[in-house]
Write a structure and sequence with these properties.
This protein has about 210 residues and is mainly beta. It contains 3 helices and 19 strands. The protein has a domain of about 90 residues.
Length: about 210
């Protein structure tokens, strides 16, 4: 479904929380971005997926928009500041004056959570949209999890042959997974050995 070219289907949770149900699209109005109003209640909308056979392959496609009316056990309009709310990365990251909101698109109905970051200082660190930081913590945009590092201030992202790599004072991060410099040098075959050597010599020459 191309939601940009036709009226989307809207879904909310059934009253018994057993499943979702379709609600009339003409009763849903857009507030801004992925915030909606239905029956005087503010909702946060996320893509609702399903599996379909496309070109003889089973693919995950957008079925419609699922509407959440609660976040952190509170109504959406008590959590999100609508005036300052805006996207950082469409369908994945949003922010307002107080919070960073992460939408995990792994499941067919994505989950939404608030990241423990300073909204005003947060920024994406690389053009492949892999890492997000506020200067005190770093999160992986791929899975919404915090990167466990003691070296936030030295963390940087480099790209080798199109592959983004996180680098701090003691580790290399690929797809947000930490590797020791030794493991990276010996086993990361997606990058040629001479390039791996150059990375190790440049960023980890002081390690024993």
């Amino acid at each position: 479904m191309n939601l940009a070219s036709q009226t989307p289907l809207f879904f909310i949770e059934n009253d018994d929380a057993s499943d979702s149900k379709i609600i009339p699209a003409d009763e849903v109005s857009t507030i801004q971005n992925n915030l909606y109003s239905y029956k005087s209640t503010t909702y946060l909308g996320v893509n609702y997926y399903e599996s379909k056979l496309v070109d003889n392959k089973i693919k995950k496609v957008v079925k419609g928009i699922f509407l959440y009316d609660v976040l952190l056990k509170k109504p959406i309009d008590q959590i999100i500041d609508i005036k300052s709310y805006k996207p950082i990365l469409d369908h994945t990251l949003y922010k307002d004056k107080s919070n960073i909101y992460y939408i995990s698109n792994d499941a067919y109905i994505p989950s939404v959570r608030v990241l423990d970051l300073n909204s005003g200082n947060s920024k994406i660190l690389d053009d492949t949209n892999e890492y997000l930081s506020d200067g005190n913590k770093i999160y992986c945009i791929r899975n919404g999890k915090e990167i466990e590092t003691d070296f936030v201030s030295t963390f940087k992202v480099i790209k080798v042959n199109g592959i983004p790599l996180g680098i701090d004072s003691t580790k290399v991060y690929s797809m947000c997974e930490a590797l020791s410099p030794k493991d990276f040098k010996e086993n990361f075959e997606s990058i040629k050995i001479n390039s791996r050597d150059s990375i190790i010599n440049k960023y980890f020459k002081n390690l024993e």
